Amino acid sequence: MNGKELQPVRANSIVAPDCPLTDDDLAGVRVVRSQMLNGGYRPITVHSPWSLACNEMRAGKAPLGKDWQKGQPRWRLFGNHPAWSRAGANTGLLLGVSDLPLQALDFDIDEVTVMAAVLAAVKHIVPRKPLIRLRVNSPRVAMVLRCEPGALKAKLQGEHGAVERLATGQQVVVHGTHPTGARLDWRRQRSPWTVQAAALPLMDEAAVAAMFSAIAASGALGSKLDRTSAKSHPGIAAPRGDIAVAFKTCVTRCGGIVPAVREFLRETGERGTHRHDTLVSVAGHLIRVGWPVTQAARLLTENADKWFREGSWAKEVDDARSHATRRQGCAAARRVSSIPPP
User: Fold this and answer.
1) Is position 11 within any domain?
2) Which of 75, 108, 150, 166 could disulfide-link 162, Cβ–Cβ 3.0 to 4.6 Å?
3) 97: domain range?
């Protein structure tokens, strides 16, 4: 990295001591976010790969703070606290909101030949001149376009990778460093801070459906395909804070945690919505009251498999436990960060 010499990092900092980001790098981050705002985008602050304030598996990808789906205040975007600026040096783009809602097509494919076949299949379906994000150490790409209001996440998973449409309630990282160490780049320098949001092409729902159908018909992802779609806007329709309060009430009503987990997950399964948020909230409660992680995971998995159905929920439970643990780590890091620098 070019720029001024890096300031010393305190031992109790929430950023790794080997973080190479300089003051000039951080100034550049603030310029990018300002230009995004001026261009009609909604930037959000994302943990950098050197952040110690989140689960290491989420560093470089996860947004900072709670309720980021509703946008972040200017102090979160442009704050100059030395450690937090480095911990939150990646920038994301909030999707599916504002008068010009945006979507991202994420081509999560690691084989060059498979990627070429998938892109060939959708070439005449995806509108011309989307923004295309790249990185030098991977064939993976992401495309940013406008979408219809209310568009939701959809995914096609195969043996050789996946293609995902990200929209309302989600984000895509657009600036900074990938966890592998590669800088994110944009084809022909067309990025969310150089191209106005209003200038992006619209890809409607009919075109998105046609894209997934064309990929499936091409056979490029393999024969074992799984198509999933979101049923609600994640993080918007049911804030986790409301779920946490409801679960505490359920514990009181049921007279204990074990019967409360069974009843709460049964009710969630019957509704068929907010299952991931429910697992995160309940996992967080179990961890806070001192349950061993393995015991909490076993209790949640048994009841999720029983009441949510649709196969095994072990991976979702593990993701929820990691998310809940990371949130507690972020809370602890925020307490550390409140200590004024020397």
Assistant:
1) no
2) 108
3) 23-229
Distances (CA, A) of 327 to 127, 169, 246, 276: 38, 18, 19, 15
pLDDT per residue as tens digits for the range 268-325: 877 666 777 788 889 888 888 888 888 888 999 999 888 887 667 787 788 777 766 6
Torsion of CA 183, 70, 237, 310, to 10 degrees: 10
DSSP-derived 3-state class of residue 139:
strand
Helices 293-307 and 257-271 cross at an angle (nearest 10°) of 40
The rounded distance, in Å, linking the Cα atoms of 33 and 90 is 10
Going by C-alpha positions, the residue among 246, 271, 146 that lies closest to residue 203 is: 146
Domain closes at, from 229, 263, 282: 229
The number of domains in the chain is 2
Query: Does residue 155 form part of some domain?
Result: yes
pLDDT tens for 271-287 read 666 777 788 889 888 88
Q: How many helices (H) and strands (E) does the chain have?
A: 10, 10
Q: Does residue 1 fall inside a structural domain? A: no
Same domain, yes or no, for 246 and 198?
A: no
CA distances from 289 to 158, 286, 293 (A): 40, 5, 11
Q: Which of 229, 252, 286 is the last residue of a domain?
A: 229
Length of the chain: 342
Does the global pTM surpass 0.85?
A: no
Considering only CA atoms, which of 140, 134, 133 is closest in space to residue 114? 140
Residues 162 and 57 in one domain: yes
